[in-house]
Q: What sequence folds into this?
């Protein structure tokens, strides 16, 4: 039996309890996750290099990088939105809308650069409209963006009257964004790296982005710290749509066409990548580097399945299982933490 | 008398991590008695109730029902044994109707596939009318706090129970509602039901209960016939030491300095009206009153967290025009929320980030980038000053004990060098040791010229800590008590308006 518990004894008990707490912290948990992903990706690559002679070639890597670079730009916006506690199901539609609006304006006689800026601007406006419904009307991100997904897809069909726009007349200087390369490195990959680097840095260091974490972690506590959480949520929603718009015009430059059905379903891939990379659907946590690793993992898996001649029908199933596994591990870690 | 105990507790112990909540306690409840259980916050009353109700499992010891050793492994098992607990905190489904809440347990065990709403509403209304004429088709969210408390009690009454445990049932009730509850509880005793009654209010215990058991610091102290002891005896057993030792020394009379904060005629057009308040440098001003009286709303409005419809707030002689809480923070007026986990701290963020949330601007360098070194320096300095026990400033706040989480929240308020700090329930739910430290810290802050306002539902805290207490009732300042007038009776009288029923009715009409 312990001695009579005075306030003093309780203090000592508390000291013991505090030092007994496992020393897990936020940054460590995130880097653990990132390191884990890197290990898994490397292991997959090594295994694949034995299984298929084509895997470990620059051509294959370039193809993989190209395939997720443009989506990766959207993942950046989605990750920040997930951190603030939101979600955006409309990114696939917005990517497409930015593409068809720019394409249609170009066909109407505008120069492609101005047309692209307008396409990106319109995407930002869609984000602003969603932000309005979330922060002023008070709807949640899921429903708002679900509605936007359908509405914006409809707008794509209206603008194009349902038929793909053929844009082979785009000037070579513009097409180069999507098709050209600098020292054998495609511009697409360079743009992707720059966007990721900028936002990863800002998210870690900028005061404005710190508010994103506060708002997502505990919106009420953020309000009680004088942070205008509605403003934060609004601008992050706009940012996510704007980056989707940027991705849209790069796709246009790459394909030299604008299809009204393009990008349907990519939102799931993008959200999955961010979540595999450690972003929580409850908000408050996530890193861009992690999300990109999540994207890379999905891309390596897809590429492996193709090289191994696995039927397309199986691919989605396997990707879905990876997502489920990642989220389960996350849940397990979080439960242990608290 | 040869009554066999319906419920008996022998040698029960329970620890949460390193902290022993209960050690080797005993308790005996006879058939058809009302048995008061007393003790300070943290004495282990609620822990014991939760174990009897199957919410928690004991580490050691026995629970006997009708002389038989049993283990109660879930709340459903407790219900089957005829044990019902009314929690201190309201745990109702806010979006369901009163009737659905009252019969939740019955609905859960109902075998028929469809609901019989006619019968549900009729039965629920019958039970509800015993307490208050609340229409049972109302959504719980639309009820006041005190009515929600009554619904909680009605819910327990529908369970065909042998043992009813009430955990501070009158905390949110008005005097007349409390009186009605007492007569119902007496009626239950007539029917042979045994009641465990947890309360801080000596007057209630002495008018209602047959026996009283006192716990202190997780241990059993004594059980007495209420008729054989005086309230003073019970309090002495509860505290076990002079209560003043727990609290730091107060100001000498006549000592308060210049006027720091002055609020005049503040109203929000809804929850409170015509609030006047003055705070002087060096003093700790307490704000008391019942839960739901409008204390938090007043404090939040003073700080610009809620809009006001009329009235003025002046800090250091300068009138404030608050458009947002950010303006208040810049002026040096900060508010600490009562709900630590819900709105006080960011549980999954590191300690350093928690502390810097209130004023990021001061840590922001050129180009809008956060100065991490300055952030760490600030965190180390403040956690050191407040004695936060932690693995390091990078540890996430959820790894800390409740008391240390609260210190982190206070560190955040201090990070802006405030002139006035308003603390809403600063020691709610934290252990005695941390509580004493926080009280000392508040006194120290006041001594250094910071204005401190403490909102508290805990009477000993208001009495022991504060130099002066304002009591809020139904959205108005019901009165002010100076250090010499402070006492539990005086505060309760003002808070419930017992001796002033006409003004209370007026106030209710306004609200």
A:
């Amino acid at each position: 039996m312990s001695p009579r518990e005075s306030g003093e004894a309780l203090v000592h008990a508390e000291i013991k309890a505090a030092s007994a707490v496992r020393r897990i912290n936020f940054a460590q948990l995130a880097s653990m996750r990132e390191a884990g992903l890197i290990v898994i990706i490397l292991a997959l690559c090594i295994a694949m290099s034995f299984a298929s002679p084509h895997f470990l070639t620059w051509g294959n890597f370039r193809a993989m990088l190209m395939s997720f670079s443009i989506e990766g730009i959207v993942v950046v916006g989605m990750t920040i939105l997930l951190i603030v506690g939101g979600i955006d199901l409309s990114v696939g539609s917005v990517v497409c809308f930015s593409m068809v609006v720019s394409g249609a304006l170009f066909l109407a006689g505008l120069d492609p650069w101005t047309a692209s800026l307008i396409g990106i601007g319109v995407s930002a406006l869609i984000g602003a409209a969603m932000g309005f419904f979330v922060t002023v009307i008070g709807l949640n991100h899921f429903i708002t963006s679900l509605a936007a997904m359908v509405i914006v897809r409809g707008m794509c069909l209206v603008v194009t009257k349902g038929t793909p726009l053929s844009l082979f007349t785009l000037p070579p200087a513009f097409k180069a964004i999507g098709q050209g390369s600098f020292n054998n490195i495609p511009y697409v990959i360079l743009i992707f790296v720059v966007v990721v680097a900028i936002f990863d840095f800002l998210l870690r260091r900028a005061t404005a982005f710190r508010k994103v974490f506060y708002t997502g972690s505990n919106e009420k506590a953020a309000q009680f710290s004088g942070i205008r959480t509605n403003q934060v949520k609004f601008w992050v929603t706009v940012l996510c749509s704007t980056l989707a718009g940027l991705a849209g015009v790069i796709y246009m430059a790459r394909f030299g066409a604008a299809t009204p059905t393009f990008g349907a379903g990519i939102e799931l891939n993008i959200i999955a990548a961010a979540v595999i990379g450690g972003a929580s659907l409850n908000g408050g946590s996530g890193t861009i580097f992690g999300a990109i690793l999540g994207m890379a993992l999905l891309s390596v898996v897809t590429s492996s399945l193709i090289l191994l001649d696995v039927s397309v029908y199986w691919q989605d199933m396997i990707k879905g299982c990876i997502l489920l596994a990642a989220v389960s591990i996350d849940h397990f870690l979080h439960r242990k933490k608290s | 008398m040869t009554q066999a105990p319906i419920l008996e507790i022998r040698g029960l112990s329970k620890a949460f991590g390193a902290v022993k909540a209960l050690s080797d306690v005993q308790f005996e409840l006879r058939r058809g008695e009302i048995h008061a259980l007393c003790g300070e916050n943290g004495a282990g009353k609620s822990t014991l109730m939760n174990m009897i109700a199957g919410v928690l499992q004991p580490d050691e010891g026995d629970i006997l029902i009708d002389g038989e050793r049993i283990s109660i492994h879930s709340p459903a098992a407790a219900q089957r044994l005829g044990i019902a607990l009314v929690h201190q905190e309201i745990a109702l489904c806010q979006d369901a109707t009163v009737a659905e809440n009252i019969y939740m347990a019955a609905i859960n065990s109902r075998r028929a596939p469809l609901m019989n709403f006619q019968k549900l509403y009729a039965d629920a209304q019958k039970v509800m009318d015993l307490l208050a004429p609340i229409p049972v088709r109302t959504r719980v969210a639309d009820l006041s706090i005190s009515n929600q408390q009554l619904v909680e009690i009605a819910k327990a009454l529908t369970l065909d129970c042998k043992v009813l445990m009430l955990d501070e049932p009158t905390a949110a009730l008005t005097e007349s509602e409390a009186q009605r509850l007492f007569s119902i509880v007496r009626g239950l005793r007539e029917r042979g039901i045994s009641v465990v009654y947890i309360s801080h209010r000596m007057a209630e215990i002495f008018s209602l209960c047959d026996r009283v058991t006192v716990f202190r610091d997780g241990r059993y102290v004594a059980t007495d016939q209420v008729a054989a002891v005086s309230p003073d005896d019970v309090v002495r057993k509860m505290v076990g030491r002079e209560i003043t030792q727990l609290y730091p020394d107060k100001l000498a009379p006549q000592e308060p300095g210049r006027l720091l904060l002055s609020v005049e005629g503040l109203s929000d057009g809804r929850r409170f009206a015509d609030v006047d308040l003055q705070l002087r440098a060096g003093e700790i001003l307490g704000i008391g009153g019942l839960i739901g009286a409008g204390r938090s709303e007043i404090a939040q409005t003073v700080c610009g967290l809620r809009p006001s419809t009329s009235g003025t707030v002046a800090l250091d002689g300068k009138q404030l025009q608050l458009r947002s809480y950010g303006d208040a923070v810049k002026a040096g007026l900060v508010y600490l929320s009562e709900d630590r986990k819900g709105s006080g701290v960011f549980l999954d963020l590191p300690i350093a980030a928690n502390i810097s949330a209130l004023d990021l601007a001061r840590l922001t360098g050129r180009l809008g980038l956060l100065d991490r070194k300055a952030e760490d320096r600030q965190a180390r300095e403040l956690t050191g000053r407040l004695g936060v026990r932690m693995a390091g400033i990078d540890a996430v706040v959820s790894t800390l004990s409740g008391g240390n989480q609260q210190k982190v929240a206070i560190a955040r308020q201090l990070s802006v060098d405030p002139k006035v700090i308003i603390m809403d329930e600063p020691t709610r739910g934290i252990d005695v040791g941390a509580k004493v430290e926080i009280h000392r810290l508040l006194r120290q802050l006041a001594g250094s010229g910071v204005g401190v306002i403490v909102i508290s539902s805990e009477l000993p805290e208001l009495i022991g800590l504060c130099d002066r207490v304002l009591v809020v009732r139904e959205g108005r300042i019901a009165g002010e008590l100076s250090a010499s007038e402070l006492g539990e009776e005086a505060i309760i009288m003002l808070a419930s308006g017992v001796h002033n029923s006409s003004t209370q009715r007026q106030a209710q009409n306004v609200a």
Notes: The radius of gyration of chain A is 23 Å.
